[in-house]
Amino acid sequence: MLKDVQDRTEHAASHRWQYGENFFPASRKVYIEKNWDEHRLAVPMREVVLTETNEQGEKVRHLLYDTSGPYTDPAIKIDLKHGLPRLREAWIRSRGDTVVLDDKSFQTDFPHVPRRRAKDGVAVTQMAYAKRGMITPEMVFVAEREGLDAEFVRQEVASGRAIIPVNINHPESEPMIIGRNFHTKVNANIGTSKITSSLEEEVDKMIWAVLWGADTVMDLSTGAHIHKTREWIVRNAPVPIGTVPIYEALEKVNGRAEDLSWEVFRETIIEQAEQGVDYMTIHAGVRLHYLPLTVDRVTGIVSRGGSLIAAWMLAHHQENFLYTYFEEICEILRAYDVAISLGDGLRPGSIADANDRAQFAELETLGELTEIAWRYDVQVMIEGPGHIPLHLLQENVEKQRKITHDAPFYTLGPLVTDIAPGYDHITSAIGAAVIGWMGTAMLCYVTPKEHLGLPNKNDVKEGLIAYKIAAHAADLGKGHPRARARDDALSKARFEFRWRDQFNLALDPMTAEAYHDETLPADGAKVAHFCSMCGPQYCSMAITQRVFKHTEVRRGMEAMSEAFRASGSRLYVDEAALNRPSER
Amino acid sequence: MLKDVQDRTEHAASHRWQYGENFFPASRKVYIEKNWDEHRLAVPMREVVLTETNEQGEKVRHLLYDTSGPYTDPAIKIDLKHGLPRLREAWIRSRGDTVVLDDKSFQTDFPHVPRRRAKDGVAVTQMAYAKRGMITPEMVFVAEREGLDAEFVRQEVASGRAIIPVNINHPESEPMIIGRNFHTKVNANIGTSKITSSLEEEVDKMIWAVLWGADTVMDLSTGAHIHKTREWIVRNAPVPIGTVPIYEALEKVNGRAEDLSWEVFRETIIEQAEQGVDYMTIHAGVRLHYLPLTVDRVTGIVSRGGSLIAAWMLAHHQENFLYTYFEEICEILRAYDVAISLGDGLRPGSIADANDRAQFAELETLGELTEIAWRYDVQVMIEGPGHIPLHLLQENVEKQRKITHDAPFYTLGPLVTDIAPGYDHITSAIGAAVIGWMGTAMLCYVTPKEHLGLPNKNDVKEGLIAYKIAAHAADLGKGHPRARARDDALSKARFEFRWRDQFNLALDPMTAEAYHDETLPADGAKVAHFCSMCGPQYCSMAITQRVFKHTEVRRGMEAMSEAFRASGSRLYVDEAALNRPSER
After folding, report:
1. N or C, fewer C-beta in 10 Å, chain B?
2. What InterPro entries does UniProt report for this protein, alphabetically (chains A, B) (predicted)?
3. Whole-model pTM?
C-alpha cells in the first residue's frame, strides 16, 4: 500500500503502461506524413491487417481513426515521469506569439516542460488564426485525421461551428476537432472522489480510456491532490483534457460553497491553463433569477457545478460571478487557447424535467455568452442534457443551433428513460446516438455506474464501447463519407467466415472472440462456416453461399428472373395451380 | 450428467423453479379482478411497496405490468410435469365452438391436458370474434393490463392493427396484445442448437425470460427433441410461444433442404398447433423471382428460414411452397387461432444491404398475404429488419404501414451499425427504441452473443434488460399514458435519497444495488445523501435539497424572481457593475 504521494507517482510510472502495438490484434500504428510550412506532421492511424487478399495477392489493410497515441507505438518508450513527446512544441514556438513563463513558485513535477502564455494583448487561439485566414499545422493534422480539406477545417473553426481544443501548454496532444461536420466524438470522464480512487488509478484510467477510443478525457477529480493528479494526466495524455475548475476552487475554500469567489476562481483557471488544460466547463449560464424555475422540478439541479453556484448565489444574494466576470475569463483563456465548454448547470436530471423553462432559460444565456467569447476569439462548445425522452430530442437540437449560433453541441447522453440504473450506459447510448445523428458534435459518455457510484476501469470501458457505438451510428446516420467502410469490411468478413477478420475489425475484438470461443474454442472453428447459434445445417450465410456461388445457379437465376418478368405479374391462384409439386 | 431425456425432464421439474414472490425485492403479486360474462378474470400485476408514505401515513405502492406469471405467485405450486394452471380453459369451453381431439397417436408428456380444434368450418380466432362485435374475456383481460378500454381493444383486433396471440391449445397463457397503440412489447428467443443446450436448459431460459420481462418467447430450437422441448415450454409458459415451423420440418427430412415439401410442413404446423404454439413465423414472402435481387448483397440471406426456402426453390425451380399453399395454411391455423408472423426472409443482415430491393420486394408480398390471411380471420403480424442505419428507419415504418395495411410490425432490432459484435444488444437496442417510438409494436431482442454463438442464461437477461429499456423509451416517446409514472417515481426516490426505493423501481434492482454497494456497502449508505461518485460535499442533489428546501429561501427566491422581472432585462455590463462583490 503506497501511502506517500511521491511513491504513488513512482509506482504509476512503471513499465506496465507500455501496452504496445498488439493491444488490438492484427493492428499496427501507421503515420500519414504531411508537410506544412517547415513542419513535418505525422498523423496517426491504426492499421488492421486482414486475412483477405486483394487481386495482387496482398493482404487487405483497413485504416481506422486512432486515439491511443504513443501507447500503441512500440517505437516510443513510455516514461510517465517524463511525459509524452511534445509533438506540437515546434509549431507553437514557430508562431512566435508566446513567451515562456519562469515562475519558480508554480507547483510542478515536470519542471523540464516549458510553460507558455501569449505575448501581451495577443490571442493565440485556433479561432483567432482561422479568422485571419491562417491554416495552422493543427488544422492540417485534423484535416488528415478526418479525411477532409484543411481549408474547410479553417472555415469551420473561424465560424465557430467547430473547435480544435489545443492549449499551448499541452503540446503532447494530437490535435482533434469537435464539430457537427466531423466524426462524432466521445468524451470519457475520469477522476477521483473523496471516497475513492487515487492519482495512479486515474492516470491508468486515462490511458485505458484513450486505448478504447476516447477522443477527449475530462478529469473531474474532487478528491485529494487534484492539481498533481491532473498534471500527471495532462503530461501523459495524447488527447485534449477537460476540467471543471469550480471543483478545485471549492477545494481551495475548504469545501464551503459560500466561500467561493471570483478571485479564487480566477487563480484556479490560470493555474489550470498553465498546466495545459484544453477546455474548461464554466457554468456561467446559471443565473440567479433562473433558480426559482427549478424549485418545482422532480430532481432539482443535478449538475455539481450548477448546484455549487446556486448555493453561492443564494448565500450572497448576488448574480453568478462566472457570469459577472465572463469577459475577464475570456481575456485570460485567450492567452492560452483554452476552449470554454459552456456548462449546462440547469440541465434536466429526470424525464419529468426535460425541456423545462429552467433548461432553456440557461440556453438563452449561453447564446449570449457564446457571442461574447467569440469576440475574444475564445473557442466555445455548448454542453447539453441530461435526461430527455425520444420525442423531445429534436427540439433540443433545433433550439441549441439557433440560440447558440451553431456552436458545437456536447451532450451528456441523453438518457431516454430513468428506469434503469445499472444500465445507464445503454439508456443514454440510445439518446446519444439519436442526438448525434441530429447533429451533436461530441457525446459525453455515461457508464453503468451512473447514479450509483464512481466508475472503475471496467466501467470506463463499458461506457466507451457503448458510446463509440452511438457515435458511429450517428456518423452513419449523418452520411459521414468514411463511416460505412468499417461496417462493410466487417460484414464482408462475417459473410465469408473470416472469423478473425470479423473480430479484428470489431470495436472490441477480444470480447467478440471470447464470446465466440465460449462454445466453439477450437482453432478450426475460426474458419468454420457456422457458429453455435445455428450449427452447420442451419447457418443462413453458409446456405446462401452454397447455393448462390455456383455460376450455373447465378445464370439460372438470372434467366428465371427474366422469364418471370417477361410473363408479367401473375395472380396468386394461377401460380399456385402452375406450381403444385408432382411426386417427389 | 443426465443422459436420458426422461431423466432430464424429471430433473427440470424440480423445486428450483419456484422463484417466489421475492424474486424482485419489495414486490408482491396482485390480481385485479374483473367479471366478464360468467367468468371471473384475475389480471396479474406486480406491486412494488416503497418506503415513501402518503398523507394517510400508508406506504406508497407502485403497480407494474407483470409477465412472470405463476412463477412469482407463492400461492401457486409449480410442478412442471403438470404444467401451469389453465386459466383460459373455461373461457374456451364456454364459447362452445371447439371439439376435444382424441388422437392417441399424438406424442405428449401431458396426456391430462385436452387438445382442441375448431368445429368444422368455424374460425376460432380473436379476429373472427372481434369482427362479429364480440368482446371476449381475452380482450377484457388485455384491456385491464394495458389500462385501456375493452371496446377499443376489440376495434384494434378487428381492424388487424393489433393481435392477441392465444392458441386454444395454450390455455395456460395470460393474454397479451401486440399493436402500435399498446405498450411496446419484447420477445426473447430461446432454443437449442445442434451444438449446445438441452430441454431443461431451455425450459429454465423460458422461465428466466418471463421473470425478466419477456412478453412472448420464441422457441427456435434446431437441436434434438424439438417436439418434446417445445411441449414442456408451452405447458409451462405464461406468455405466448412462437416458433418457426420450417426448422422442425427440416429435421423431419433429416436436414436436407431439398427434401422439404408442403406435406411435411403441413403435418408440422398441425402438430405444433395442437401442442399450443401461439404464433408461427412463415417465410411465405420469399419468392423465387426475388432471389436474384440478393446475389449482389454483402451478406446475402441471413434468415435461417429464408435461406432454407431459397435452397429448396433453387433445387426444384419452383415457387416457394409456403406462398403456393398460403391459403391452405390459413385454413389450418384459423381452426386453432395460431397467429401468423409473416417472416422477413429477405431482411438485410448488414448496413450495406439495408432498404434494398430484395427487402422491399418481400414486403410487397407480405402486404398481399396479409389481406389473404385477414379474409380467413387469421391474425397477422409483419416481421422486420435487421440491420438498418438511423436515417433509413423512418422509411421502413412508413412503407410497412402502407404496404401491409397497418398490421403490427415486429422487428429484430434493428442494429444501427455492424461494427460491434459482442455488444449487439446495444447496437440493436438503439434501433429498436427508435423504431418502437416510430410505431413498431414488438421488438425481438438481440443478446450480446448475436453473430457469435448461442446465448446462455446471462445473455438472455442482458438482452432483455436492453430491450425493456428500448420498449419503455419507445412508450415514453409515443406518449403512452402510463409510461411516465415509473420514471417519475424512481427519480423522486433518487432525489429524496430513498436508495432502496430507487433500486426497487429499477428494471434490475439487484444489479443497481450491487453496483452501489461496490463502493458503499454499509447499511447507512442506503439513506446517505450522496454516493461515491461525488461524495457528501459535491452531491448536486444534496446541495439542491439543502438550499431549496428552506421556506425562507423559497420565499426569498420568489421575491427575487419578481424583483428581476420587474426591473426588465438588464444589459450584461450593467449587472456586472451592480454585482461587483465588495470585500470578502
Report:
1. N
2. ThiC, ThiC-associated_dom, ThiC/Bza_core_dom, ThiC/BzaA/B
3. 0.93
